[in-house]
Amino acid sequence: MNNNSSSCNGTEPEKAVLVKDLERRFGSFIAVRRISFEVERGEIFGFLGPNGAGKSTTIRMLCGLLAPSAGWGKVAGFDIATEPEKVKSSIGYMSQKFSLYEDLTAEENIDFYSGIYRLPPEKKKERKEWVIEMAGLTKHRHFRTGVLSGGWKQRLALGCAILHEPPIIFLDEPTSGVDPISRRNFWHLIHELAHRGITIFVTTHYMDEAEYCDRVGLIYRGELISLGTPQKLKTSAMAYDLLEVICEQPQQAMIEIEKLSDIKEVALFGQGLHVICENAVAAEQSIHHLLAKQGFQLLSIEKITPSLEDVFVSLIEEKDRSAKPQQEAKE
């Protein structure tokens, strides 16, 4: 695949995405609040947050679809505020809802998008065959799109988004509503594209999908609250320790553990509890004593590395404690 991201003059290439103090207001409501970050070329960058966090508003600004209220950003070297049309021609975009024509076959959808992207006639056939092979649609090319499963529609939509060989692809909640096996297969495709040098900017609220990304930005109520590799976030983003407690009657035990003064948060996690605390050694002693006193059998207790879900929940709780929450952003 053609990679427009390489530098022609031997100088250091620009960042794929560069954002500084980007903000979007709707009247008095701040949907995205002065966020700053960079995305390297060929990187898989995950934008992680709950529904209403401001993910889609940010993507629409980066794609040149929505003007920022303040700050600035560049995508593929073009200013998102003053050069939105150049931004649009340099990116691929796949929305949450598949923008495919269900009455057309898979091949006819690809032909239609070839026309939208104004591919030259000599390129259309080559690109169509590449997309069909990349997406594994050879046996489905003549099927009406409406009868395809969610996973196959997803692959087709991705193929249509990259027909014109964009150096950057924006994927907005691309796996929402798709079964787990199709989600995993879709991420294999994403990694194949990244290996070709394409930059992937993906929003998701699935914590496990963030593990597939090179770096992750956590956004909450319009603010970027943490940024780093999944491993860095799990090992250094939380200010507190995490204990895994396995005991009998975990729901009832959780109610009692929450009453301890040195405990920040307690949550059910699988068959046990995840306990966020200021000091793991002191908290372990307190929990041992409490559960023995209350008659709960403790099977195991140990300090563990937090999951991304633990990190995100902890950061959100800390954010809510330290600031007045504003109403949720409109996606």
Task: List the SSEs and their pairings.
Layout: E1 17-26, E2 29-39, E3 44-48, H1 55-62, E4 70-75, E5 78-79, H2 84-89, E6 91-94, H3 106-116, H4 121-134, H5 150-161, E7 168-172, H6 180-195, E8 199-204, H7 207-210, E9 215-220, E10 223-228, H8 230-236, E11 241-247, H9 250-257, E12 263-269, E13 272-277, H10 280-294, E14 298-303, H11 308-322
Parallel strand pairs: 3-8, 3-9, 6-7, 7-8
Antiparallel strand pairs: 1-2, 1-4, 4-5, 9-10, 11-13, 11-14, 12-13
Top-tier CATH class of the largest domain: Alpha Beta
Put simply, the count of helices is 11
Second rung of CATH, namely the architecture of the largest domain: 3-Layer(aba) Sandwich
| The CATH homologous superfamily of the largest domain | P-loop containing nucleotide triphosphate hydrolases
N- to C-terminal separation?
33 Å
Structural class: alpha/beta
Average pLDDT, all residues: 88
As for the number of domains, it is 2
Task: Bin the helical content.
Answer: 25-40%
The CATH topology annotation of the largest domain reads as Rossmann fold
Radius of gyration: 23 Å
Q: What sort of overall outline do the alpha carbons produce when their principal axes are compared?
A: elongated
Poorly predicted runs: 1-12, 325-330
Order of helices and strands: EEEHEEHEHHHEHEHEEHEHEEHEH
Tell me what portion of residues adopts beta-strand conformation.
25-35%
**Main sheet properties:** 6 strands, mixed
* Record field, number of beta strands: 14
Instruction: Give, in spatial order, the strands making up the sheet with the most strands.
Output: 6-7-8-3-9-10
